[in-house]
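Justification of resources, computational component.

The compute hours requested in this renewal are based largely on the per-chain cost of generating structure records like the one below. Each record pairs the submitted sequence with a full C-alpha cell output. That output is archived, and it is also reused by downstream analysis tasks.
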Amino acid sequence: MRSPVLRSEDNLRRAVHFRPSAEGPGDADHPLTRALEMSRIRLVKAGAMFVIAFLVISLRLIDVTVLETNDSHLNPLAVAKPLEYSRADIVDRNGKVLATTLRTQSLFADARVITDPQGTATALARILPDTNETELAARLKSGKGFIWLHRHLTPDVVDAVNELGIPGLDFQPEEQRVYPQGPLTAHVVGYSDLDNHGLAGIERAFDAGLAAHAEPLQLSVDVRLQAIVKEEVQKAIYDFSAIGGTGIIMNCHTGEILAMVSLPDFDPNDMSNIVPATIFNRSTLGVYEMGSVFKIFNTALALENKKATLDSFFDVVHPIHIGRFTIHDYEPQSHPITVAQIFMLSSNIGSAKMALESGGAAQEAFLGSLGLLRPAVIELPEVAAPHYPNPWHDISTMTVAFGHGISVSPLQTLIAANAIVNHGVMVPATLVKRADGYQPAGTRVISEETSFQLRRLLRLVVTDGTGKNADVPGYLVGGKTGTAEKVTGHGYAKKALLSSFIGVYPINNPEYITLVSVDEPHGTKKSYGFATAGWTAAPATQRIIARMAPLLDQMPITETADIHNAYTVDFPGKGKKIAAD
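The structure output for this chain reads:
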C-alpha cells in the first residue's frame, strides 16, 4: 500500500504533465492548470519585452556611433567618418592640386551654459588666433544658445581648447578650402569665403560646377611654367625697381594658357593681409596703352590690304604735327625707310603714315576682328573692357598705329598677336585644359602670306632690332618691343613707363607665344639708364624661353640655310646698332 505522501507526489506529477484533451471533460478548468498557463503567458510577454528593449537600445547605439545624425557635431566618433566633400578639387594640366577641401573643426559656444564668461574669454584669447579677449567676453555674456567663436581651427588649437574642459564649448565639423600652391596661382585659381563660395578667379567662374561635381576641374596652366614666369618677371621688377608686372604663356595652336602671372600677388590661404594692389589681376583686369607692340597689327593691316609691301618707303625725316600734338621717333632718321625698317626701328612716324594709308575705318574694323575692341573672352570674372577712340578721328588712327590712344589688357594683346603669327588664324584662349589632340576651330583674320611676312619682321626685330636681348640660340625667337608712357590725370607721365615684349618661337612654325610687361621700371647702370622694353621685358622673355623649352622637351633647331633665308629681310643699313625701344 502506497503512503499518502507518495500518492500526493504522483498526483502532483500528473497535474504538472496534464494536457487537456477532448476526451477529458472539465480538466482545463482545474485551478492548477489555469495558474500554470497564466505563468507561462507572463513569462512569454516579459521575454518579448526584453527582446524589444534590446533591439531598441541596439538600434540607438548604431544610430549614435555609426550613422550620421543631426547631433553629429557632438559625437567624437562622427569626426572619423569618411567625408564626401561638397566642392571639387582644381588641378593643373599635370594633375598638381591647386585647390582642395579639408575637414576642419570650428568652435562654438552655448552662452547659457558658460558659468564664467570672463574667465572663459581670458583662457580662449590665449589659444585662439587673432581674437580679442574683450570681444569674446561680451559675446559669451550674451546668453545666446549658439555663438561662433572661431572657424576652421588647426588640430593643435582644437586640442588646446579641449584641455580647458569648459562646459558650453563645442566643435562643429566643417570644410575649408586650401590652396597648396599659395600665391603662385592665386590670380588664376582665385579664392573662396569661409563657407566655400567662390569669390574670385576660377573658383568664382565655376562656383556652381565645383559645388555640384566630385571630379577635379583640370586647368591648362602648368605650375612648372607658372613658377618660371613668376621668378623671371619678379627678377625684372627687382632689377629695375618696378612697381609690378605680368607674364603670360599661351600655346599658339590650342589657345591654352600655360602660365598667367600678375605681380605683386597674394596668398589665398591668408586673406587677412591683402590690399588692392596685390589682388588686382594685371593680366586681364588691367588695361594699358601697350605702345609699339601695336605695330604688329598696324603693319599686318597695311600688308593685308595691299597698301604697302615690305619694300615700300615712307618718309620719316620730319615729325608729324597735328593740332597740339607732335608725333616723333625715339631714334630720328635722316632719309625715307622701308616698311621692314619702320618695324625694326619701331618708327612712330612711319607707322602713323602707314595707318593713314589704310584709313581709320579699316583700322577700327581690323582691330575689332582681333578682339581688341571688346573684353577678352576667358574663364575669369576679372576681365576689363578696353578703352578706344569714339569717334575715330585721323589723330586716333595715327596714335593707335603705335599703341597710344587705345588701352587694352595684356591678355587681349597676346591673343591678337597670336592670330597674326599663327598662320593668320585666331583661336579662342582658355584656362581649361583641352583634350589631347583637340584642335579648336579658329577664325582666319589675315592671309597665310601676311602672317609669313609678319613672322619675318618679328624675327628681324630679335636678330637686328630692338629685341636682341630676347634671342635664345637654337629656338628662332621672334618678337616686338613696346614702351609706352602711362596715362595720368594730366596727360602722359614721362618717367612712368609700361615696357612690354611679345615673344614667339619657333618663328618658322610658332608653338608658343609669350608676353612680359614691366610696370614703371627705372633704368640702371647695367641698362645704360634705359628702362625701355628692350632692356627690361626682352631679357625676361629670353630667360623664360631658355628655361621652358628644355622643360617641354623641345630640342634646339639647327638654323638651316632654307630657314635662315626664308626669315631674313635684307635692306641697306641692316645690322647697325639700334637703341632698344
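Confidence is low (pLDDT under 50) at residues 1-26, 64-83. The chain has two domains: 90-219, 226-265+278-566.
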